[in-house]
Input
Amino acid sequence: MFKRILQNRFLQSSFIVTVASFLVSIFNWGFNLIIAKSMSLADYGEYTSVLSYVILFTIPFGAFGFILIRKLGSINKDERQVYGRGMEVLLYQKILQNNLLLAVVGIGLFLLLAWKANLESISVLYILVTVIVTLLQTFYLSAFQAYELFLIYGIYLSGMSFLRLLCGAIFIRLFPHLQFLYLNLFGLALLQILIGHFIQVRTKQKLHKQLSFPNVFTYLKRPSIYIPLLATLGILGIANIDIILVKKLMMSSDAGLYGAVTLLAKVILYVTAPISSVGYIFFTGKEHKQHVNQIFWLIAGCTMIAGIGAVIFYSLFSQFVIHLFFDERFASIGSLLWLSGIYGTLYSLVTLFSHYFVAKNSRVSLAPLVCLLGQVCGIYFFHDSLRQVLMVNSGALIILVIAYGLGFVINRRDADYIA
Output
């Protein structure tokens, strides 16, 4: 039986994707750590804010990737790569055909962000360019999953992340300036696109067929599309809007310090995220329907243990953590590390709940949108210190965990009633 489980293609591919995602998280965390230690507090705060803008602006691409995987997955496996090549050609054609519209929208966003976001012009330009580049990266990553080339997907994703970490360790430490950082990241992104194109072309040479797609609004009306999209907007919004607001409402050096606090909070998420991702696979599988609740509580228990351990460690060894990962410039955040541990633990639990309800296609998964609105209002009125911002975040997440918990109980009660 154990051998049969190991030979299960679904579990094998899930394992590869999970390991790749974990490695990417570790490499990205290491890269951000290098940036924090190499650059000034103001520049690091600028970079973390830029990263948050990019994440929020590219959330809709998750829906694009989901649609692409489903569309290619509905085609005969032997022809998927041929149609995928056709979609690649179509995507580039659409970008070129709409270059005037993209330019107008880009100029509008540039002026708006330059005016309201408290960012340098070079940072705003990097955000806009990266959004387009991310669309192309999403295409190749989604296509490889649709082709079931999971090993290539894992090597492609983790390999590029490791290369970025390597470049950061060598070059960013030598030239710790925002302009050089953006140029380095843009060059690596272009390299990733070129490698993705090379793999795509190698699969079926120049053969390609076109796929027809309904109007985008047809897709957005489907609960299987808009629920994951809006849930992702809420979850990622909670994790990034605070960084954006700190950059806008507080001093630039405070933004750098806050970026370091959230980076330490994400350690917990990086540990628990792979487990949560595996949980999502089981939540969606019909064959595991009878064991969903047990799996959920097992993962929740592991998350709580990891979170409590992090809070205790941060409380007892805060200065050791600061000197291990950062330097004396960050000494002032030592008293905040236990709060970052609580924040990271709560966010990990919220992510797990979100996966559970998204897997059930439940509108309960949209609760983070309400929490996001409360978080924005809370930070806007309470931002005299980084401690206040962290307490607002933690308070909003506690309310969200309670709301999710009530939804979980009601969902289970309804399921028992129907049974």
Observations:
- The chain has 17 helices and no strands.
- The mean pLDDT is 84.
